[in-house]
């Protein structure tokens, strides 16, 4: 993968960026995504944020290699601290992390989001945490996508400011993904169903405690949802 040949998951993230957007890519790693967006003439200004020195230096090198210093600013900063008010960023991308970490980054960086109109996030696991964050902080889903790449399954969530209510089932499975039930969706949740059935068996064979009873109830509820949807 490089700035002209993205992985499928990053290409799908890029597809949701509006023409002419001002983008901040948080946890940018090699800055492949912002470089691609500029090289493909989708955006003219982008920012790449990295909190770790090694990836920050890799991002700087990639920007230099593609001669994009005029268009892309790379910053060593924690999360959304890479975004400054004068940047006028209207789109934030965060890809390749767990859902709870992405939600934490968004929560800690709320003061950097006033000018942001769109969030495009790609959690590797636990996307539910982002849906819950959105409900609590005045954002709503406008699109969701699930895809399989290299035997791994990824979700992409697109959010804009607004009010949203979701059922517990929708928070877990994703309202747009539930409606579509794509092959990747079915693959993911059939695998999860088998895992939950195995965990349930272990719980039932263990000495019962109040904590285990609560866990058993949660598992049974999830299995019921999957029975309804798969």
UniProtKB/TrEMBL annotation:
GO biological process, one term: methylation
Keyword terms of this UniProt record: Methyltransferase, Transferase
Residue intervals passing through the bilayer: none
Keyword field contains Transferase: yes
GO molecular function: tRNA (adenine(22)-N1)-methyltransferase activity
InterPro entries tied to this protein: SAM-dependent_MTases_sf, TrmK
Zinc recorded as keyword: no
Superkingdom assignment: Bacteria
Record PANTHER family: TRNA (ADENINE(22)-N(1))-METHYLTRANSFERASE (PTHR38451)
Protein name per the record: tRNA (Adenine-N(1))-methyltransferase
Organism this protein belongs to: Paenisporosarcina cavernae
Taxonomic classification: Bacteria, Bacillati, Bacillota, Bacilli, Bacillales
